[in-house]
Amino acid sequence: MKLLKVIIVFCLISSANAFSRDRDITIESKDLNGVSQKAVSTVSKDASFEPFKDLGCKLVGKKIPLTSSSTVTYFITTSNACGWGAAVGPIWIVDESHEKVILSTGGYSIEVRQHAKNGFHDIDVNSEISGNPQSTSYFFKEGKYAPLKTHDGSVRH
Predict the structure, then answer these.
(1) How many domains would you assign to the chain?
(2) Most buried among 16, 39, 69, 99, using CB within 10 Å?
(3) Taking 60 as the threshold, does the pLDDT of residue 89 lie above it?
């Protein structure tokens, strides 16, 4: 009976870790190649892309599951570390269905959270600057992602 409990706990922990890993996306992920022309065009027209356009940066990314509806969303960054700092690069989250950038920020990775608000999952944007881990949580509000709290727990509006 004890062995059965250990096996069940192990399976639950493994499942949770597998779910978490599948939902983390980094700017260095090897599978950033499936971006539609519509999503690329949406980012290219956004004012936040101007500095990267001047550098001749190309865009890469992949579909990410942020909503249970038929809305198609993408994680997009620049290819070949174009315009990046030390392990921090541009990140755009695009709602392709509405041709809209719903988050423009910088970081290393995003983690899609299980909790959803207003139809979209919350996300954390993570990075490390000068050896200090940084994380900002975002929730979906009024058609775009808004910051909820920073790594130190302070609330931002």
Answers:
(1) 1
(2) 39
(3) yes
In a domain, 6, yes or no: no
Q: How far is CA 59 from CA 49, 71, 121, 152, in A?
A: 10, 21, 24, 31
Specify if 156 maps to a domain. no
Phi/psi for 116 (5° steps) reads -125, 150
Reduced to 3 states (helix: H, G, I; strand: E, B; else coil), residue 151 is coil
Residue 35 lies in a domain: yes
Query: How many Cβ atoms from other residues are within 10 Å of residue 77's Cβ?
Result: 29
For the whole model, what pTM was predicted?
Answer: 0.80
Burial class (CB in 10 A: 0-12, 13-18, 19+), 128: middle
- Contact present, 104 and 46 (Cβ < 8 Å): yes
Give φ, ψ of 96 to 5 degrees: -65, -35
